[in-house]
Prior knowledge:
The protein is 54% helix and 10% strand. It has 23 helices and twelve strands. Strand 3, helix 7 and strand 4 form a beta-alpha-beta unit.
Amino acid sequence: MVGEAASDRKRTFYAKADALSPPSRWPVELQALHGTLPDSLIDWAAARARDLRVGGDEVLICAGLLTGPQASARLAAHLGLALQPPDVPLPVPPDLAPTVLRLQTFQTPPEDDLPGYVIAARGLYARRLASALREDPTLKRRARVIATEHLHGLLARQCADGIGRAAAFDLRAHRPDVSAGTIRFTRRMLLPATMAGAAVATAGLSAPLETLLIVQSLLSSIFLASATLRIATCLARPEEPPPLGLPDAALPLYSIIVPLYREERVLPRLVRALQAIDYPPEKLDIKIVVEPDDAPVHAALARMALPPWFEIIVAPDVGPRTKPKALNCALPFTRGSFVVVFDAEDVPDPDQLKRALAAFRQGGRNLACVQARLSVENADETWISRLFAAEYAGQFDVLLPGLAQLRMPILLGGTSNHFRRSMLELIGAWDPYNVTEDADLGVRLARAGWTTAVIGSSTAEEAPITRAAWMRQRTRWLKGWAQTLLVHGRQPLRLVRELGWGNLVPLLLLTAGPFASALLHPLCVAWLIADVVRGVFLTTPGTTLGVVATALSLTNLAIGYGAAAWSCGLGLKRRGQFALAPILILLPFYWLLLSVAAWRAVVQLIVRPYWWDKTEHGLGRLRPQAPLPAGAPARAPAGILTDSA
């Protein structure tokens, strides 16, 4: 009896001790929650945290059982640290805001000759903080804890102007040679155009027919080389996708940036698509970037209950209002070692992030970017959307994969670009003054000696359904291509050194070639019609030069249309949309529309070089989305939620 009584007292003692102190099997961030949540729930969070190699508090936050500020308050109390109030400003210089955001720590002015710290300690960082407190007990009176959400909010408000200025002007200030913001388009375009025109006019006055035939032959040769390169990509065999392979524990933190402007119609669809991504939510960091005066989007977001791994970033109203500037504003707030950009109407394949990581692993450290394939989901609406879908199929299912296999530079698509964050920051991130920031990034990555891969994972997009919407979008694209050519062509010798002729020639053929072709195509068609009307079609001048020029022109005409039709048709076949192939009979008319867009781009390049002509989304009939995967996001087993603490 005495022994049993002693055992009872011992059990009671340990039960009381357990009630007062958290079990040692829990990491510090979960020990801080002892008595707040059921022990069985904390055990579940600890087990999932071990499996994912994340913080237990992050598991509970993503499961919706705890808020970030609650976790920070409990951690501060558990470690005996002060809590930084969310409404008290921090003396952070604006130019240091990106560094503070990256380190999640701000060093305050010294007290007693020792620096103080404000620390956003969450997850594994909380464990490092606890270890530092054990090694240096004086840190307890010098450190304060702040919730990550509060730190981001404080810096977004206090340093908005500095963050906006860095996003808008840093590349132009530190790398003026690769910024479209330092190009004087009128001067850069008028002088070469005037000199070339004067040279051609002078030669034309002395030998008009010979001059015309020489120019015709040169242009035909360039266009023919461009078509030949496209044919080469049609002959390249698609590579087998690398195996996924990575367990959840080995997955890195991945950041997703989605810039929005007047996109309230597609916002619910976007959030659902992002929630359907097959990736542990504890390792997702999603930034929705909005403009300060976009009241409809702000109101729509306020009505939505966004998951905890989403964060809204307001892009300060500084500098040009462009998508790349918005991306630059969000980048300092991201925490992932990999970053991907999606557009508002995008629906990526759920496994796209994992497939991108598999490609990065296979491609080695020199692989800086992975481009997913873009597909059109409303192709059957209008003839414009059908041709747009065929063009996208040729671009993303044939041309870009072929270029990647040939190890040539790639002009990136505007969305679904996955980057190693370190390399993205090394080249200065996005150029706010280039209206096709994707094409410019592709060139800058190649100039830095890095490569780009294309993966089979797709992102569904919405095509323009009216000619007017298509024209505005295509004008912006062509204007951006011209910007990219002018920016990177201003130091031609340096460009050759960095790219080498083997990369430079294909790059010019894929940028300058199509742009020049689009500008001159109406003249060629008019010339062809005039020859038919005069009855001299398929006849040649009596000179050898005339024979060569005519042969090149006719060959270029046939191969140009043939290469485009083959590329688009092959892409439609690979995409499983070959039923759309009959629309390719309208390619000649489509190319005339491209010519109109190209000439509009030239005019805009002179009068409104940095104007971003917004493409509206949510106007087409989009396919219904699949239901969310059963396991996303992770939830604690229902039975343990009712256990007592």
